[in-house]
Amino acid sequence: MEMLSWGDAGWGDELVRAAFTTLLVALAAFGLGLVIGSGAAALRLSGFAPFRWLVEGYTTFIRGIPELLVLYLLFFGGNQAAMAVASVFGHTGYIELDAFTIGAIAIGIVSGAYSTEVIRGAILAVPRGEIEAAKACGMSSWLLFRRIMVPQVARFALPGLGNVWQLTLKDTALISITGLVEIMRQAQIASGSTQQPFTFYVCAAILYLLLTSLSNFGFGRAESWANRGVRRAA
Amino acid sequence: MNFELMAEAFPQLIEGIPLTLQLVFLSLAIGFVLAVVIALARLAKDPVLPRLAYGFVYVFRGTPLLVQIFLIYYGLGQFEAVRESILWIVLKEPFWCAIIALALNTGAYTSEIIRGGIQSVPWGQIEAGKACGMSRVLLFRRIVFPVAIRQALPAYGNEIILMVKSTSLASTITILEVTGIAKKLISATWQPIEIFLVAGAIYLTMNFIVTRGIAMSERRLNPHLKDRPLPKRTALDRGVTAASAPAAAVPSKPAE
User: Fold this and answer.
1) Can you give the CATH number for the domain in which A164 is found?
2) By residue range, what is the domain housing residue A97?
3) How far is the C-alpha of A19 from the C-alpha of B184, rounded, in Å?
4) Within an 8 Å CB–CB cutoff, is residue B74 touching chain A?
5) Are B75 and A197 in contact (CB < 8 Å)?
6) What CATH number is given to the structural domain containing B209?
7) What sign does the CA torsion over B217, B218, B219, B224 have?
8) Number of neighbouring beta carbons within 10 Å of residue B111
9) Which of A39, A180, A188, B37 would disulfide-bridge A99, Cβ 3.0–4.6 Å?
10) A9: helix, coil or strand?
11) In a domain, B249, yes or no
12) Domains of chain B: total
């Protein structure tokens, strides 16, 4: 038990710090996924066929292949890609992305594919009549977007995004292969130095359970808050 | 884009497919049996059983698969008792550890799918079965299970696809299936995009076949939902107006 104590003697503080890293990298990936998802969903529904094909290709491909492959692609090819992008902007020289950035981008790309589908469904769920009504009131497209679309799309997408968040949170365990010291990597380091892998992987599992349970609770609260004005049968 | 490298990598990656498929089928088969047991335990009229089953599902759905794999492969070896028991013959093999972890994981997810399916069976059908004097086992075998399976099939298809993807994690415990070989090739050639595309295409093909297979078995299991040809007009139909005739012929999907 003293192995889990605070300070230099135990791994308690390291594990808690690692849990924060997991949370941060998951938030970064989920945020990136939301940005990608919103953009891709908008393109998907824009009615311009090449955009539609592009987005469909992206979601089908990413959702059909293992997350680990995406991570390997960025882990081994991320620096090249970053330098290629930078050279477009006139930057020449070596760029090295850190493990956090690589992990967040890789899991973000995966998360984005799932978010796209959720957000697309939510956009389609907004009643057409309301959009027509807003136009009839003379709303500009920006005002219509802000007042009619965003509040409802956010509400419709919330349950689906809750699932995507859970997936994203659990996928961050894969980032341990890049050497980022999150829960999984920290448990590996600790079990390597103490020869007690079972103890530390159980700790890791408990930390993940804590994170998923808390976020489940949070999403539940957010859903009931978002639906406070909606009448339901039963 | 280095097409020569892609052509070279393709046969090497193909060699990983049998192992990937073995992982998928074995863990799905074991996981399915487990899932039926867990689903029945969750629905049992018992104070303890449903809670135990829920606890199992909660833990396996709330933690990453990678933790589960490492816990079984690296974790269990910590105990002297495990290393000296007969179980060690199985637990020292990375392949069987991967199978156990994948089976437990898919068992947890699938049990929820099956539970949803069982709960969707209309109560009247169960009552009718009982009224005919069916025993509990016969009732389950003839009424509950066949109806539940049809209801659960689309969700189970998604679970199979997730499993095909999940087997890639076996590469983290030294198993050289498709992803494991891909990683080896990438670190040897330092050409990530080419290898990524070939390996990705292999997984996509496998998942495409799964999707088609599920769609086909859905059609086979629900022949009454197939588009039927319009019924032939008989003398009796003469009074039926043209507008009302086709409406009856269009099969409507049951509400979920």
Assistant:
1) 1.10.3720.10
2) 2-226
3) 30
4) yes
5) yes
6) 1.10.3720.10
7) positive
8) 27
9) A180
10) coil
11) no
12) 1
